[in-house]
Amino acid sequence: MPLTFSSNFSDYQTRIILHMEKWRSDSNCTSADTALLYDTEESVMKKHAAKVCFNCPVQNQCLYTAISIGERYGVWGGLTPRQRKSLIKNLKLIAQSKNLQIDTWNNDVDNFIFQHTNFQTAYNIISS
Q: Mean pLDDT for each 10-residue chunk of the chain (128 residues)?
């Protein structure tokens, strides 16, 4: 469920995924049992995410990547798929309130998502 479906989006996804290779090796989950981050039970994912994602040095990059590429499975950046779906819904509302057009991916949309997908901001958005 990416925020946009513009013709440039697949190129953007490719760049994001290639960039992910630069930070992924620094993540806490490289040395953790990631199967639990993809469990079918939301509560299991949340519990494991609290252990693995807490104080992860690349948590914000992970969450930003998941939002940017429309990742639908597993815990990314400390948020479950349901939490990310809620975040995207709320980001769309916030973007609309700022008159930001999110139909076409551009630098404004990219910057907007980047600003709102650090873990603390994202958690505040989905908690309100």
A: 47 66 84 85 90 90 85 92 90 83 68 81 82
